[in-house]
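Thread: quick sanity check before group meeting

JM: Hey all, I'm pulling together slides for Thursday and realized we never actually wrote out the predicted structure for the chain we discussed last week. Dropping the sequence here so it's in one place. If anyone has concerns about the input, flag it before I start.
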Amino acid sequence: MSPAKRYFHVEEANRHVGRLNQLFGDVMQLRGQLKTLYAGLDKAGHAPTNDATPEDEAAVPDEYKRDRQVFYAMADTLRDCLQAIAATGCVIKDLEIGLVDWPALHQGREVWLCWKYGEREVGWWHDVHTGFDGRRPVSELSVQPAKGEP
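JM (edit): ok, ran it. Output follows.
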């Protein structure tokens, strides 16, 4: 039996915004550093790969081994940041700009609460099929009480 789908209210999503701004700041910085490091290693013919064998690693000159170790450590940190972002209940829609959505309900249908890195709060929503270009202000959402509330 799968768990019931979780829907969010704007206030719930807003509680995560401060942490998400911090995490996406880290993500943006790490991605930039990883791209630069990868480009340098690739240019030297020693780009990190997922299918590297111990023999491949042994053939890497010492001057590049440290950079590869740094690359792998930074990639692990990036993965941790992405897991922390997902733990808020949001879905990452665009990593380049730091765009996430939380599932919500509006007038009995599923919609997305939409937030982008740098925004002070969740101020937008959109239908599931319209995406970012169809964003509308959250002031248009009808507030649906939780079960058991009047």
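AS: nice. The longest helix spans residues 17-43. The radius of gyration is 20 Å.
JM: adding both to the slides.
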